[in-house]
Amino acid sequence: MSVGHALPAGGLTLARWLGPWADATRAPDVAIADRTVAGVRVRVYGTSGTPYYIAPGLHYAGPDDPRMDRFCRILAAAGHHVAAPFIPSYLALTPDARAIRDFIDVFDAIDFAEPPVVFSISFGSLLAFALAAARPDAVRRLVIFGGYADFHATMRYCLTGEGRDPLNQSVVLMNLLPLLASPEDVSPYWRAFCERTWGRPELKARDRFVPIAEELAAQVPEPIRELFRIGVGAAPGAWDLAEPALARFDASTLDPRPHTERVTCRVDLVHGADDDVIPYTQSHALAQLLPNADVRTHITGMYGHTGAHRPPLRLLAKEMVTMVRVLFAMS
Q: Which of 10, 62, 183, 299 would be 78's cystine partner, CB 3.0–4.6 Å?
């Protein structure tokens, strides 16, 4: 594909709304309807066009998250018919094997007019690969945004990585909680912290999120209050607590490798160079795990884990080329 080719009309719409020049507080007005499919709530955007099936990331709000809702609206405005399921274990922030079954069951129950593009966000990459492996003739292609190859390595990065997003630390411990000595379930309090802080980049600064943590800590039962504070980063010790549990954590159901070798369609791996949740090196690792797929890897400085960035002027030309390639993949 030559980047000199003109973008199709849908690609121009994507460029208008997804480029670093776009106003992230605005979104196009499209038809939206909620349905229950195979026992799972599904939000449908648009009424016709190339079908898109969204594999969501770990987020307590799912498609109700304003950023995901905006993205799905933009896809619909670009001429796509979008289905975005609310996967229960992903809403609970504790992914499990049931998530894959739910994602495939919903897919099987939807009457797609043609094989859809499957677009995954973050940890939703597992769902996309599992679906493409299980239904190879029913998936048009995959677009994997910020996916992971190694669950354990990604969890370690979330706890110790340089430049990591500190607001995700409690979710790692939430998934390790059965292996931690805790007299009570602290998960609801960690979730409350996520609900107060996620989607607000300014709160990644320690002096901004710790006061929120301490305010919430006052509501946490005393036996688990210090564990809560460690989990959200208000007190030190998260890695010391998590390291032995992570070593014993069985991530086999969250491992993409049993699925990736069976993927045969085109796969576009898109990753932000500054992703502070899943490092871009995970996309390079994923490319090696897809020997039978038509893989294209796009590392870009225009997008982080949750939105568009404005690249430095000296890198603008290179980043524009990458962005055009990504928009072609999504058009």
A: 10
What tokens were used for 127?
A: 């769902």
Give the pLDDT confidence of 225-234 residue by residue, as tens digits.
Answer: 999 999 999 9
Q: How far apart are CA 63 and CA 71, in angstroms?
A: 9
* Dihedral angle computed from the Cα positions of residues 211, 216, 219 and 225, in that order, rounded to the nearest 10 degrees: -80
Beta bridge partners of 271: 299
Q: What is the dihedral of CA 7, 286, 231, 212, to 10 degrees?
A: -10
- Strands (DSSP E) contained in 226-310 are 266-272, 294-300
Question: What confidence tier does 20 reach under pLDDT thresholds 50, 70, 90?
Answer: confident
Q: What are 165-223's pLDDT values in tens digits? A: 999 999 999 999 999 989 899 999 999 999 999 999 999 999 999 999 999 999 999 99
Helix (H, G, I), strand (E, B) or coil at 214: helix
Beta bridge partners of residue 55, listed in sequence order: 120
First to last CA, the chain: 13
- CATH fold label, 9-149+256-330: Rossmann fold (3.40.50)
Q: Give the model's pLDDT for residue 111.
A: 92
In the chain, CATH 3.40.50.1820 covers 9-149+256-330
Give the tokens for residue 147: 């996916």
Residue 141, H or E segment: strand 141-145
Instruction: State whether the Cα torsion 268-22-60-234 is positive or negative.
Output: positive
Q: Is 121 helix (H, G, I), strand (E, B) or coil?
A: strand
Q: Is the pLDDT of residue 5 over 70?
A: no
- Cβ(276)–Cβ(165) under 8 Å? yes
Q: Name the one residue in this structure whose structure tokens are 């990753």.
A: 271
